Amino acid sequence: MATILLQAAGGLVGGVLGGPLGAVIGRAAGALAGASLDASLFGGTRRSEGPRLGNSRIMEADEGTGIAKVYGTARVAGQVIWTTRFEEVATTERRGGKGGGPRIETTTYSYYGNVAVGLCEGPIAGIRRVWADGEELDLTETVHRVYRGDETQEADPLIEARQGAGNAPAYRGLAYIVFERLPLERWGNRLPQISCEILRPVGRLETDLRAITIIPGASEHGLDPLPVRERLGAGEDRVVNRNVLYAASDWTASLDELGALSPSLERAALVVSWFGDDLRAGRCDLRPGVEIVQRDETEAWRAGSVDRAGAHLVSSIDGGPAFGGTPSDQGVLRAIADLKARGLTVTYYPFILMDVPPGNG
Fold this sequence. Notes:
It comes from Aurantimonas coralicida. With 361 residues, the protein is α+β, with helices and mostly antiparallel strands.
């Protein structure tokens, strides 16, 4: 608008003072002035920035603190033994600028921390759960490495990359965990207080174990290493075979822990249950069973060429299933493949569960 008005005014003044040539010059000068005024009023770029950190804030790190020793399973608070300056990542969002309006640029800052947290005297079998400021961490969403604290462990590659080859301590004899690029926004852009559930078997039972039977054999997707999702409604779902935050599935969490506690394990018997429905042998049918007749799931349940519609529906107690269902065939095949990949000899162990009505027989 200012461009039009000043262009007309410039032409009028220029015509009065300089005739036709003055009018041309006046219109050009007015147009330039108007464009500049429009840009300052309606156009240009407005910039805003989110809060930035002035310095890194770390969790507790006390020199000379005693090193804990764990027997069995215990939750242990950690101490920072190494860290770096926070990594700052700037993200700029641009919007507007069309139709002559101003363009708005908003820059926000995210922070990531690299930290090594000392835990206890080693060697340990492993770590189960991890808490940050008292809230359990989903370890599948973080880059982390656990060091068991034996006398042969090597330096962490991140620490060595930052400190230089040959300058990074291996912390032998100390169990510790390293987090790489841990997002800090949820903790107010500071390193949270880390505590871990430590596994350290006492005695020789676990370490001398050579063979194991894997139960229960009644869980529709419980033996599947892959997560299976059930769609509950619009935009809502759940993973039916994941009840932990330290592995992608319950199977993976259990087998990882088993391998850590029993490194000498050689054989595994995998129990898979079908259901009998009558105590009289001549009338008893053996069929795979399910907990519910219909479920909208990413991996359709199927056992022995039978789908949900044709399977035995297990009895219920207090509104819930009295048994877990028969493991899905595809999940069983993946479980066997996973056991073999872990170096174990696998025995398939068919099992019969009797689900009979009252008064039968």
